[in-house]
Amino acid sequence: MRLSKRIAAVALAAVMAVSMLTACGGGGGGSNGGSSSSGSNNGSSSSSSSGSSASSGSSSGSSSSSSSSGTTTDEGTTTLSKSRTGIIVNNVLRSGQVCIVLVSDEYDKDNKTYPQETLALSGKSMYHKTANESGNIVFSEFIGDGKTNKSYVVLYPESAEYQSAKKWYTDEKGYNTEKMTVPCYEEYPYDPDQAGVSLSNFDQNQKVELGTYTYKKTGAVYHSETVTDKYGDKSIYCYDNTGSLKLLVERTVDKKTGTVDESISIVKSITCSVNPSLFKLNPNAKTLDELIVPPTN
């Protein structure tokens, strides 16, 4: 078991989660204040209900209650440029940076937590961190440095995956793993263009469907703005009455079975600035070869 098996999934997750905010291959975000105040003003200009969900999204939710975590209603349409989400996107395009902190509502049985994800883009650089719900215990990081064209996949000792790898090298391979008490990393080439890192492709006229979204877990009702991609999958942005973005919902449809699945993330924060230190490798991290010692015959 080597760290390289994680890199594709981690990088893809980071790009997709950030690009959710435009659902068209670009990036999204905005400062907490910008999302709240300017978004609230924009909401009144774009629709009295400021929210959305596609009509097909609404029917999809009702047809897949077993896999859906929320329901939607439809109240009209607008364009991305006139939506609250569009304001957030414009804030990001002006700054060229975005950092989003999310908490998944899906429980991670291995790490025994609701994972917190930190996702950041700055120019051509990309960062993704997975931690426990409070964010004080780090499980993994992906760092893509657009200046050096190097990337790093880092696993931390507190993660279930790290402990599983340690056990495998100890029990199955007979290695001495006593040094496996610090973060472990592998380095790879990094091609930002191939990774799809971009803060562009903002379609001002992209259709946004307005309505409400009811989160089944809490019963909270949010104003929603839904964008549908070319595959029929939906990104639903859920705002409270103050205009703050509270939930990001991805609703996908299995093309063979028609089953609708939802992935929900609670928005902890969005900022239009990224700390450059995120793209620096943890100085305590070591390569796997530095941490394991093969058995002697």
Textual characterization of the structure:
The chain has 297 residues and is of the alpha+beta class. It is 23% helix and 33% strand. The protein has 7 helices and 13 strands. The protein has helices spanning 7-19, 32-46, 55-63, 84-95, 160-171, 192-195, 288-291; strands at residues 70-79, 97-104, 116-122, 125-131, 138-145, 150-155, 184-189, 207-215, 221-228, 234-239, 245-253, 260-271, 286-287. A 13-stranded mixed sheet has the order 1-8-9-10-11-12-2-3-4-5-6-7-13, sandwiched between helices. A hairpin with a 5-residue loop joins strand 9 and strand 10. Helix 2 packs across helix 4. The protein is globular, with a radius of gyration of 20 Å. The two termini are 22 Å apart. The model is unreliable at 4-8 and 22-67 (pLDDT under 50).
